[in-house]
Amino acid sequence: MYSFITPHPNLPPQRGEGINGGVDSYLYSPYPNSFDITQDKLPSSAGKERKALSGFRDYPKTIARYFLNLILVIYLPLILFTIGCQPDNSPVPIDKGLDMCEYCRMTISDLHYAGEIIERKKLHKFDDIGCMLAYAQTHNLNTNNASFWVMDFDSLNWIKAEEANYVLSSEIKTPMAYGIIAFKDPFKANDTADKTKGEVLQFQYLFNIDWKARHAH
Fold first, then answer.
1. Could you tell me where the beta strands, DSSP code E, fall in 134-215?
2. Could you tell me if 120 and 87 are in contact, meaning their C-beta atoms sit under 8 angstroms apart?
3. Residue of 101, 95, 112 whose CA lies nearest to 158
4. Residue 63 burial (CB < 10 Å; 0-12/13-18/19+)?
């Protein structure tokens, strides 16, 4: 079975056994559909034109990939550096009985009164909120250059120091006798203050007190 293929107008005649005297054998193939005019029989100049056209179509993609790689080379190190420089300001659990207070150097044995300061990726743990505040005043630390955390007296969960409600009373016994505890719930803070004849304070007002002078040691 022979299949008839319409000849390409630019193809030169090829000698061989054919129906029309051997000069047009390329018109007939003993293998149906085996004649690929775009791959096998085009002149070399047509192949070059096809490659050139293909390269022209891919040019925008090449330019896009170039600029994408350029952006990655320039900005990726900067992004990674920025992420690496951002401090981790989250509190960490205190190992009761092993961790030591940064200010009074006593072992932290009761978490109800604990506090933490994170500044420049350095973590400082305290057994008393008063110790935390005295340390902050000694080292000129505040909410602009450090992160403060205190333990909620009721739930023993960390809360940001700025969001806590503090009860200050001489009747409250704390590890270093500062007499200050923290609550997340303002109603519980008010109730405790009433029972201990104390006062409820917010974090920003605590820096008006000289905690170093109140230190028990």
1. 147-151, 158-160, 165-168, 180-183, 199-201
2. yes
3. 112
4. exposed
- The span from the CA of 43 to the CA of 41, in Å, is 6
| 34 or 145, which is more confident | 145
pTM over 0.70: no
Question: What is the per-residue pLDDT across 41-58, written as a single tens digit (0 to 9) for each?
Answer: 555 555 555 555 555 566
Please choose, from the candidates 133, 141, 129, the residue with its C-alpha nearest in 3D space to the C-alpha of residue 209: 133
C-alpha pair distances (Å), 110 with each of 8, 107, 115, 126, 138:
94, 9, 11, 10, 24
Q: Which helix (H) or strand (E) holds 85?
A: helix 44-85
CA 38/CA 156 separation, integer angstroms: 78
